[in-house]
Amino acid sequence: MEPNVAARALSAATEITTTVLSGDDPDAVLPMVVRHAVQIADADLGLLMVRDEDGSVTVEAAYGADTAGLIGLVLPAESAAGRVAGGAEPVFADDVTSDPRTSQFVPTELAGYGPFAAAPFGTGGKRLGVLTAYRAPHRAPFDTGTGDLLTAFAGQAGVVLALADGADARHRLTLYQERERIARELHDVVVQRLYAAGMQLDRVHRRLHRRFARTERDRLGEAIEQLDQTIEEIRGTVRELRSPEPVPETPDASDLAESARSEVRIAGELLGYPPTLELSGELAGIPGERGDHIRAALREALSNVVRHSGASEVRVTLERDDREVRLRVRDNGCGVPADVARRGLRHLAERADAAGGRFDVNSSPSMGTMVALEIPL
């Protein structure tokens, strides 16, 4: 093997490593890998194929004189490329169309080539696919030195890409976890305090309605509306924070029993009497998003009781079985007034629909109101 060929291989490996470590998308580096492989092996065509779950390999990058139609080409697991990607030893053939190890699976797009080489892209547990090189039929086969060099280069480049992809995944996971922490604090702390403050202001507003001048009443009413709007905006921010580029992650499980006690306690302070709370079933470990739906429904229902119902009795029932979680909030008040905005209730209906559940509100001046939510597990 000529010294300048080995030097080119070392230079190519260094360039690839530097590019990957600079933060470039690993997928964008694949064409560079194939280009260097063609130069190192003195080939006419190079293909980088990534192994799929079924063992087949798909061409992700190509370099050579004629690469039209090659990107996306799939070779079966039984092909030489598929076997090498799956863990077999490198394959070197004098003629890809006649060698019994390769000829059966040569697609039409590659039938015009002769000498063939297939080296694993990556090594050991970090084997990502296969790097193949082709020469024109009239050219000499790949010699042992070139084959060894191509194999070493493909192995090293694959490992670099695998490690970089793993580091990027860890970074994205860390970012996602931080976003989830911020979202949880906004949801559990900030929204809770704003909600309580808004209900207290509304209570003051109703009690002192006759003692305020009209201008002051309107000003206090606007402050309550702004608090409601701020809560909705924060909830929207929470949803966005919890929906970044998805890194597979199971949302934090919810302890709905503790959440229900907290919501009922706040409502009791504002109503002047404690609502009845009945809990049934295992309410810890509810999937995070479904727990959020239940909490939002309970908060909205109790908020409406405090603000509009004039009820003297409120009963909250929360139960879980193997299939679903069920929430019921009943009061003996005047029902939901016709002139009250139902934006919050519509939002809860949309939540239930998105989760495959059901949301109902039954309300009348004589019977009071019942809010019901069922969320499947």
UniProtKB/TrEMBL annotation:
It comes from the Bacteria. The keyword Transmembrane does not apply. Keywords: Kinase, Transferase, Two-component regulatory system. Residues 294-377 form the Histidine kinase domain. The keyword Kinase applies. Transmembrane segments: none annotated. InterPro entries: GAF, GAF-like_dom_sf, HATPase_C_sf, HATPase_dom, His_kinase_dom, Sensor_HK_TwoCompSys, Sig_transdc_His_kin_sub3_dim/P. One of its GO terms (cellular component) is membrane. GO terms for molecular function: phosphorelay sensor kinase activity; protein dimerization activity. SMART domains: GAF, HATPase_c. Gene3D superfamilies: 1.20.5.1930, 3.30.450.40, Histidine kinase-like ATPase, C-terminal domain. This is Histidine kinase/DNA gyrase B/HSP90-like ATPase.
